[in-house]
Amino acid sequence: MKKMTKMIKALNEQINKEIFSGYLYLSMVSYFEEHSLDGFASWFKAQAQEELFHAMKIYDFVHEIGGTVVLEAIEKPDIEWTSPLQIFEEGLEHEKFITASIHELVDLAQEEKHYPALDMLKWFVAEQVEEEANFSYHVDLLKMSGDKGSALLFMNSKMAARVPLPLSADQMAE
Ligand code: OFO
After folding, report:
1. Ligand 1 centroid to 77 CA: how many Å?
2. Which long-range contacts (CB under 8 A, 24 or more apart) does 34-40 make?
3. Top-confidence residue, 44 or 3
4. 51 lines ligand 1 (CB under 6 A)
């Protein structure tokens, strides 16, 4: 195995967190599927995919800088959800946690004078602003709509505009 510097170790931990994010959002998809909120389910499937893309961005970067990717076990996400609002609130909290983690990586890259990592992480700093804004916006909408009734159904139809890339064999065949 190649050398595991502090920076590479921390990037490996971030890969794990990004994959966990995807896992968490897939767990949320399940709630929406069970409640026939297909638009929300579609939005969260796309979100879960985006998290895998985030993980792969770091995964590829670690290899580019001559490091080793060491994949660890992914934590089990929560599976008990009570409402769309609670889900978005949990999502927002999770994104704040990820933002803090990205900022710690930036601090480390600065300390270590790891300029390539600093450059790569700029993308994530901007992305986290978007991630938090996205969840926060939906928390606000759900609070305004009362998290149920026709407003929720209207929101569900709007959420359907965000679709994942083909995920299942059925979709691939379409
Ligand atoms: Fe990877 O941004 Fe969300 O978690």
Report:
1. 15
2. 37/84, 37/152, 37/156, 37/159, 38/156, 38/160, 39/155, 39/156, 39/157, 39/158, 39/159, 39/160, 39/161, 40/84, 40/155, 40/156, 40/159
3. 44
4. yes
CATH code at position 155 = 1.20.1260.10
Instruction: Tell whether ligand 1 has an atom less than 6 A from the beta carbon of residue 95.
Output: yes
pLDDT tens digits, one per residue of 64-119? 999 999 999 999 999 999 999 999 999 999 999 999 999 999 999 999 999 999 99
Q: Please identify, by atom number, the ligand 1 atom nearest to the C-alpha of residue 18.
A: 1
Q: Is position 169 within any domain?
A: no
Is the pLDDT reported for residue 166 higher than 90? no
22 in contact with ligand 1, CB cutoff 6 A: no
| Alpha carbon of 131 to ligand 1 centroid (Å) | 7
pTM, to two decimals? 0.94
User: Is a pLDDT exceeding 90 seen at residue 4?
Assistant: no
Query: Is 98 domain-assigned?
Result: yes
Residue 172 belongs to some domain of the structure: no
| pLDDT value of position 173 | 67
- Name which residue sits closest to atom 1 of ligand 1, judged by CA: 51
What is the rounded average pLDDT for all residues in the chain?
95
Residues in the chain: 174
Ligand 1 centre distance from Cα of residue 18 (Å): 6
